[in-house]
Amino acid sequence: MPELGHAALLVTFGLTAYALVAGVAAARLGRRRLAASARNALVGAFGSTLVASAVLLAALLRNDFSFTYVARTTSEALPTAYTISAFWGGQEGSLLLWLLVLTGFGAAAVLLNRRWARDLIVWVVPVFAAVAVFFSFLLVAVASPFATQQAPPDGAGMTPSLQNPYMLAHPPLLYLGYVGLTVPFAFAMAALLSGRLDERWLIATRRWTLLAWAALGIGQLLGAHWAYVEVGWGGYYAWDPVENAALMPWLAATAFLHSVMIQEKRGMLRVWNLLLVLLAFSLALFGTFLTRSGVVNSIHSFTQSSIGPWFLAFIAVTVFVSLALVFRRLPELRSPTKLESPISREAAFLYNNLLLLALCLTILWGVVYPLLSEAVRGEAVVLGRSYYDFFLRIFGLPLLLLMGIGPLIAWRRASLSSLLTTFRLPTIVALAAGAVLLALGAGSSVPGLVAYTFSAFVATTIAMEFVRGTRARKALGAASWPSAFGSLISRNRRRYGGYVVHAAIVLLAVGVAGSSAFDSVKDARLERGESMTVAGYTLTYRSLEERQVSNATEIRALLEVRRGDRELGTLKAGKNAYTIEDQLSNEVGIRSDLLTGEDLFVIAEQIGADGVVDFRVFVKPLVNLIWIAGAVFLLGSAITLWPDAREQRRLVARTQEIGLPATR
Amino acid sequence: MARKASPARLVIALAVAAILAVFLLYTSIAGGGNPSISPSELAGRSGTVQLAGLVLGPVRGDAHADGLRFGLRDIDGEANTTVPVLYTGSVPDLFRAGRHIVVDGELRNGTFVADPGSMITKCPSKYSPSRNSGKD
Fold first, then answer.
1. Pick the residue with more confidence: A663 or A281?
2. Does B103 reach chain A within 8 Å, measured CB to CB?
3. Smallest Cα distance from A230 to chain B, Å
């Protein structure tokens, strides 16, 4: 069996190498049949990668410990679902998943766009193939998932905190996001290589970028939720390098999704967009590199491995070649229009881009700072939480405000008086909200108060847009209010889906501000019967129970919760002791208030032999809005992603306008 | 009348970005950030540092009372220096002798006094409990 997997990977390597060489030759010489052959090789590479993946999956499911990879990541006792998640639990498997998704996306993107973007596709194929060659080379020569050994009686098992449903979805979603960013990158490079620099590469990849971006966003939120409920230190984001690795390409992609609109409408920012795509893709590669290389100290320290230098070299080549291509085409990339006024939608989008990029690069700086300072001063200096928090406020809060301003401001040039009319209501609402919150005591954290106020502003603008649009549809003859609302969204999915995503970001901002700027925490050592009070809650430690389950011993402290005179029931917090893995894991107790979105979060830090427990209790206001934001984000992304026949027609018209070379 | 669009505005925007970049460099070099060092480099240092090392037993005491005491040694070590550490606050699940940890704190009278709750554990390899990370 391992031979089959290895052979399949060799075939993938061969096919992608052929697609690369033949694709370049076909594009340069204008050979249509050769181009088709290269394309078929790329599609075939997806098939052979699928075979290799099936072999690995089968080995995992059969607990075939003669596969080194299987023995290292699973054990007999591991439940089936987690055995499947071991596919991406280790380095070799996750590289295989990268390659599988990459070839799959490549095949799909090429086949779906082959009719109306043929002149681009001839170059998309070799670009995709080049990336796939790199990954299949790694899998064949450096980190094979099909290495074998004398089968041990049992595998090493999986770290308890990864034995969690989140691990079924979180890593693959991040991979979908990372790999998905290859699609816009490949089309951008194809546009540069072919010299067909019109807007089609953007339009062709908009949905792919959105898909990748949405997957990255949801993947990160799932990771945050996992950290919150499972890792149990009382937070959801720690600015750890590996977390940042996923955030950076997401920010770059967010900037790209916005600046794309400027290019589509006004033909501006053409070089900028190319650079953003390059940045997003390089950061996706860098993210994979960070996760896998262990060059920076991270709480997520995965197997340190030999693939680091390969990745760095590949990133360097990618960046160098892409920049050279952009540079070569620079004269042709001059935009026909210029920014007319600093108060216009274009300008607002530009500010949004600068802020997103500033935030992204600040984070990048923080991630690589230990390496840089080590190289320069001979001593690694680690930038802590305060660094990131500071810049999140500096760049994030204006960004939040711009989210309300950008979509409502006029194109080209907006007058101040029109601004006053447009933003009168949101400003009043925001100031009123600020005043009320200040009176309620939110002044204890200025950034928190500012975040709330700005959120109120943005929320009002979004609500206004929906009300105005629905009214207009009603006036145009919609039968009822709901149908007017429905047709509003379905007729302009991109715009209103965008607003829904913005609403999600508002929820996220409020949730983050509430839970980080206005939270309470208290530590106490309690004996049975003793109580502690935190932020209005009274917790009484009642009893300690111990239970034996299949792979662990569960110890739980039982607490009674009261708030004022109201009994709020009981809460359990404790630890699991995993037998095979010989590890402890915190099992926190969380009580969510459905009305206020507040969480009471209890950690049993230390359980003494005499039943004395050290508790750490957090009260986190509004934290549940963050998870609700995830659902709203998904909804908004789905609205914008939904196929749109009218958009497709516009696209075809545009293709005809440009005129494709008749046949080649 | 359409005025002649000036590229000056873009320049302004880029200048803003440049200022921010300088600002960034300044703050990150001047303020914030602790040197990350290993136990053998600790001797004679003052000020808060981030110490990364291998936990040496015996681990004694109570992190939630008068403090947990253990030794810390270089992870890949020719150096045999062991620094005594005093730690209070949350102890991560993965903490034990033989594990790699990172703590913030400073050296006081020969003992590294860690900032409360600053400990981060690093499993030598998250997915494959390494066979040679035996308990000392």
1. A281
2. no
3. 12
Asked whether residue B64 is domain-assigned, the answer is yes
Give Rg (Cα) of chain B: 23
Q: Quick one: angle between helices A241-266 and A270-293, nearest 10? A: 160
A618, two tokens: 């957090």
Q: Does A630 touch chain B (CB under 8 A)?
A: no
pLDDT at position B27 is: 65
Q: Are A213 and A281 in contact (CB under 8 A)?
A: no
A56-86 pLDDT, tens digit each: 999 999 999 999 999 988 888 888 888 999 9
What are the backbone dihedrals phi and psi of residue B83, each rounded to the nearest 5 degrees, phi first? Answer: -105, 130
pLDDT tens-digit map of B59-82: 888 888 888 999 998 877 666 788
- Inform me whether the C-beta atom of residue A413 falls under 8 Å from chain B C-beta atoms: no
Spell out the residues 6+ positions from residue A430 whose beta carbon is closer than 8 angstroms to its own.
Answer: A453, A454, A456, A457, A460
CATH code of the domain covering residue B49: 2.40.50.140
Q: Give the residue numbers spanning the domain of B96.
A: 36-122
pLDDT at B39: 87
**CB < 8 Å to A606, chain B:** 62-64, 91
Q: Can you give the pTM of this predicted structure?
A: 0.90
Would the CB atoms of A350 and B13 count as touching at under 8 Å?
yes
Question: Given a cut of 80, is residue B17 above it in pLDDT?
Answer: no
Taking CA atoms, A505 is separated from A68, A408, A456, A469, A653, in Å, by: 43, 17, 12, 21, 35
For residue A272, the 8-state DSSP code is: H
The structural domains of chain A, with segments of one domain joined by +, span 1-163, 195-319+333-410, 415-518+629-637, 521-620
pLDDT for A295: 58
Task: Name the band, by pLDDT with cuts 50, 70 and 90, for residue A442.
Answer: confident
Higher pLDDT, A100 or B119: A100
Reduced to 3 states (helix: H, G, I; strand: E, B; else coil), residue A516 is helix
Contact between B5 and A575 using a beta-carbon 8 Å cutoff: no
Kindly determine whether residue B62 and residue A606, on different chains, have CB atoms separated by under 8 Å.
Answer: yes
Check CB contact of B79 with chain A, cutoff 8 Å. Answer: no
The whole-angstrom distance between A387's CA and the closest CA on chain B is: 7
Which residue bears the tokens 């970005």?
A: B17
State what percent of residues in chain A have pLDDT above 70.
95
Q: Is residue B136 part of a domain?
A: no
Residue A586: strand, helix, or coil:
strand
ipTM of the complex, rounded to two decimals: 0.76
Q: Looking at chain A from residue 321 to 340, which residues have their Cβ under 8 Å from any Cβ of chain B?
A: 338-340
Our CA-based measurement puts residue B32 at a distance from the nearest CA of chain A, in whole angstroms, of: 6
**pLDDT number for residue A420:** 87
**What residues of chain A lie within 8 A of the CB of B34, using their CB?**
381-382, 384
The answer as to whether B98 is a domain residue is yes
**Nearest Cα to Cα of residue A336 among A407, A265, A277:** A265
CA–CA gap between residue A32 and residue A200 (Å, rounded): 21
Q: Which of A500, A473, A475 is nearest to A484 (CA)?
A: A473
Total domains in the fold of chain B: 1
pLDDT score of A370 more than 90: no
Q: Is B26 in the A-facing interface, judged by CB distances under 8 Å?
A: no
| Under 8 Å between Cβ of A586 and A555 | no
Count Cβ atoms within 10 A of the Cβ of residue A333 and give its class: 0-12 exposed, 13-18 middle, 19 or more buried. Answer: middle
Cβ distance of A616 and B20 shorter than 8 Å: no
Residue B136 has pLDDT above 50, yes or no: no
Please, what is the average pLDDT of chain A?
89
- Decide if B78 is inside a domain: yes
Scan for tokens 């980080």, then name that residue. Answer: A516
Q: What is the pLDDT of residues A222-274, one digit of tens each?
A: 999 988 988 778 889 988 888 899 999 999 999 999 999 888 888 888 899 99
Kindly report the nearest CA distance between residue B2 and chain A, in angstroms. 9
Burial of B80 (0-12, 13-18, 19+ CB in 10 A): exposed
